[in-house]
Predict the structure.
Amino acid sequence: MSIREHFVFFFFSLCYDNIGDSMKIKENINPYIFRGYDLRGVYPTDIDEDTAYTIGLSFGSYISNLGKDKCIIGHDNRLSSPSLTEALIKGILETGIDVYDIGLVTTPMYYYAWQVLNIYSGIMVTASHNPKDDNGFKMAFDERGNACGDMIVDFKNFTFKKEFKSGKGTLYHKDIKEEYFKLMINSINLGDRRVKAIIDCGNGTTSLFAKELYSNFNIDFEVLFGESDATFPNHHPDPSVESNLEALKKRVVETKADVGLAFDGDGDRIGIVDNLGNMVAVDKYMILMMRDILPQTDNKRILFDVKCSKAVEDEAKKFGAAYEMYRTGNSYMKARMFSGNYVFGGELSGHVWFRDKFPGFDSGMYGGLRMIELLSKTNKSLSDLLVDLPKYYSTNELKFASPDEKKHGVIEKIKEYTLEKGYKINDIDGVKILFDDSWALIRVSNTGPNITARFEAKTEERLQEIQDEFINILNLYNK
């Protein structure tokens, strides 16, 4: 932990009594913090301690109405997380709900706490990979898992009514780390090859855990940006953006490492760099995992999000696997993994779910260990393993700024355009326009004021053609 963070954590611990005494119900919560699969905004403009206290009152009352009497609370290493967590817990306790505080953890550790404590109501205070000044609340009301869509809309409406309960809950503390490490260790079986890895924690929450966890395995590894520092001084902790992986790519090549691994701010996403220093798109990583998992299981069911390459679908067909293309978003995908009984799933942003010998929640550190496990059982390099993947040309995920109050209307206009043109579409998540030789995807971001787009085709010429058409249309409607 950086010197600055030591000071911030110490400061909040000293001042909490005063903060708690001054907590008041927030009368004008910004409705736009209630997003597609979490609550998220800028601290302290959109989310401050009074907001957190009010959300705590609302959450405790809401789950009490569902028959729950306890919940789990964890938080990431962002500078605002300690004070927001304290205010949140205060609000929940005042509704009569008991709180199990698991402290500073990665989001996957919070998920595992659900199973260890057999408590499926809770909140993780995190803004994941968002900019350093953001924060938010990833919540679960009950056994359905992370709240999303209509569940969050209902919670927003409940919050604005301010019909909060009154009571006196009890605060407990639980350290989940050792049990979480045992889970990882017991589900990885390395081969004879000793793999060399470079691990980029991006100064995020995994910097508090990755070195100790990976030291339990027979691998050579080096950690980059392994000091917890939520100012993110080296690069933004989003491994799906290639520019954030430049230091990792360089170090992999310099040290002749077998693989580079990167994690996001709260540790639930994975980024991969091959032995030649090339970023490996997560959908390509997914294909390697499918090739490892599907021959060894009778449950040949695969889930992937709308942003993934058609190569994932092609690969599933080779194994005779059932597959589904689903909407982007951790909450949606995770819930669908279980309701659809899928053995493996992933989305392009870096969330991956293993249910072959793991409980099925998304963990960047575990995803990295599975990559190392695969490499330890072959003499081939990672770049060699990628050579025979189905060939498509695709763009990165492109972002276009669009205000929250406007972006959904832009998507509707684009959908109208595609229907007028007679194009085949899938509208499970934005608009995905499907051609025989290509596709275009335009959708709203559920984590910020943006519209995102991605394009893929069998040839570079066709890729440029569809990209030009739909970016022009997007810019027209997004003025």
